[in-house]
Amino acid sequence: MKKFAFYLGLSALVFTQGFANENFSQNYESTLKNIVKNVEKFEIMSVDRLESIDGLNFVITNINGEMVPMFVSKDGKSVIGFSNLIFIGDDKDKILIEGRMEKLHADIKANQDKIAYEIIKEIPKDRFINIESFDKNNKFMTYIVSDPECPDCREHLTKMVKYLRNANVRIIFAPVHGKSAYTKSAVMLKEASKINPDNQEALIKLLNKYYDINATVSDDQASDEERDRVLQDAKKLFSKGVIKGVPFSFTVEKE
């Protein structure tokens, strides 16, 4: 069973009119608590009757703060875990489920971004590589958490020009690879501090140099203290369990 954690406001408490009755809710809660142990919080967030499968409903439930999508029988006594391998032939039901899941994922990401931003605001600005947008009047800031030896981060870096067209960029390092990744991160921070943030070409060139798959560094290019500062940044970024890997990025309006 795949779990999703996010915050939903009261506006998201949507029920199919006249359908989520008291017996259904009680039966469903009882059934679920027999399956999942130590349920302290149980709240049905949405219930939708499926047209193509008689007697089956698509339900999103808050279980101990985790938003969990499930298929539940109309009497609430049978539960089927939601899977990415579910195929729905009826277009109406397919659109309904896709819409619910799209909103679920959007709300998860919004909550992750909010928590990540609170963490990032506590980190000194000199721990970031700052690159100004091509548009000097741009009011947005994209934060990128990255690792110079991560293949996905390397691919992510190819989008830098696109990012800079739409926002200013701040990059912070949270390596998940070995010592050389920490050294590269420390070296880039030192070298970037000598480049003006509006020199996008030079900063992109710097990033490309150390993100290159063939890039090598020696241990003496950064001190143990500099590598440790990168490690402390990574610990802070991963501390809340919201940022679980790299690359991780989000955009906010500049304060």
UniProtKB/TrEMBL annotation:
Superkingdom in the source lineage: Bacteria
SUPFAM superfamilies: Thioredoxin-like
Coiled-coil region(s): none
UniProt keywords, alphabetically: Signal
Domain Disulfide isomerase DsbG N-terminal residues, every copy: 36-107
Cleavable signal peptide: 1-20
Protein name in the entry: Disulfide isomerase DsbG N-terminal domain-containing protein
Origin species: Campylobacter ureolyticus
